[in-house]
Amino acid sequence: MTTKKYQHIKTYHNDIALKLAHKMFGLEHLHYGYFDSTTPPLLENINKAQNTYVEKLLEVIPNSVKTILDVGCGTGGVAKKLVDKGYDVTCIAPDPYLVEKTLENTSGKVKTYTDLYENIEDFAPESFDLILMSESCQYIKPDPGWEQNKKILKKGGYYLVADFFRIRPIDNPTMSKAGQPLEDFLGRAEKANFKLLKKIDITPNVAPTMDIYQEILNVRLFPLLVAANEYIIRSLPTIHKIFSFFLKKKVSFLVERYKTQNAENWVKYKGYYIFLFQKGS
C-alpha cells in the first residue's frame, strides 16, 4: 500500500547531497557509517561501515517487537534489513524519490506513506510496537512529533532513535546547526512520559564519516564544479554572467561551510547517540 499526501517542495540540502551520493557512489544507505578496528575510515569502506551501523541499530530492538514504523526511511536500506528479519514494516518520508527507492529496495514488502510524520493522520491510536528514527529525528518538529509518538505507539511500545544532537552552543558561523539540542530532547522525552532504557554513545565511531564526506566534496565534487564553471565561461559567457550574479555568493558560502565540517570540528559541537525509550502507561 502506498499513500501520498505531501510533496517535498523545499528539499533539505542534506537530502540533495545524500541522493547525489547514492547515485554517484552506489551507497546502499543514506546515513553515517560505524567505523571500528576492523573498518578503517576510508571511502572504499563506507558501505561496510553503513551496514555495521544498521546491525548495531537492530541489536537494540526488543524481542517482543513485531510492527515497526520507519520514520524518514531514506532509500529503504534499513527497512529491507527489518523485512528480512520478519518484521511488519511501514515506512514514511516526505520525499517521493526516497519512497520510490524504498519500495524498490524492499521489493514492495512495506507499506509506505509520502507525508510529514508530524502531520499524518492515517495511523490509528496504538498502531505500532516500535517507532524507528534513524537520522530523521532532527527533522521532526519536537512538540507535534512527541504527540504523534504518544498517539500511535502501543502501551509499553518503544521509540528507537539514532541521530546526532547538539551538545553545546554552536559559536562557529560556518558550522552546521543541524541536530536537536540534546538536553532539550531528553527533557521532552521525560515530559512526554517516555522512560529512557538505553543510551549508547557512538560518536567516536561515526565521526570519521564527516572526513569521508569532506573527501567526496573537496576532492571529487568541488573540482568537478570548477571544471564545469570553466567550460561555461569559455563556451557560454552570457549564461555564465547570469548564473554568477545569482550563485557566486551562495557557492562560496557552501564551499567555506563544508571546509569546517570535518570530524575534529564536528565532535566539538555534536554527539551521536542511539536511544531506546519505552512509552509509559
Explain what you see.
- 45% of the residues lie in helices and 21% in strands.
- With 281 residues, the chain is α/β, with parallel strands linked by helices.
- Strands 1, 2, 3, 4, 5, 6, 7, 8 and 9 form a nine-stranded mixed β-sheet that branches.
- Helix 8 packs antiparallel against helix 9.
- The longest helix has 28 residues, at 208-235.
- The radius of gyration is 20 Å and the shape is globular.
- The two termini are 31 Å apart.
- The model is unreliable at 8-14 (pLDDT under 50).
Provide the fold topology:
Blueprint: E1 2-4, H1 13-25, H2 46-58, E2 67-71, H3 77-84, E3 88-93, H4 96-105, E4 111-114, E5 128-134, H5 142-152, E6 153-166, E7 180-181, H6 182-191, E8 194-201, H7 203-206, H8 208-235, H9 237-259, H10 263-269, E9 270-279
Helix pairs in contact: 8-9
Distance between the termini: 31 Å
Cα-atom radius of gyration: 20 Å
Sheet with most strands: 9 strands, mixed
> How many helices in DSSP terms?
10
The best one-word shape is: globular
Low-confidence stretches: 8-14
β-strand amount: 15-25%
Number of strands: 9
Content-based structural category: alpha/beta
Percent of residues in helical segments?
40-55%
> Strand-and-helix sequence, N→C?
EHHEHEHEEHEEHEHHHHE
Give me some keywords for this one:
9-stranded mixed beta sheet, alpha/beta, globular, about 280 residues
